[in-house]
Amino acid sequence: MGIKQQAYVVAKRHCHELNLQLLDQSVMLKRVRFKRNRAGGLSLLRVFVFEFASTGDERYRGEVQLLGRVLVDVSVDLHRI
Fold first, then answer.
1. Based on the structure, what is the number of domains in the chain?
2. Are 45 and 66 in contact (CB under 8 A)?
3. Is 81 part of a structural domain of the chain?
4. Domain that holds residue 63
């Protein structure tokens, strides 16, 4: 599985767990930089963004961070329930 596909699967699963609707069925690469991993080596930190809706009316943003192939964080903006 490619990195972008992995980020999409993570975003889709996170939205499903929070009862949110993933919009546009995609994620976009926002930023790439080097960061040290737990072993002390350098890995690429990739930050992907996606959009979601909670009520179907407004769009909000979410973010997936992957260090190499390891999930670092998934976050979503504050939204209406």
1. 1
2. yes
3. no
4. 3-76
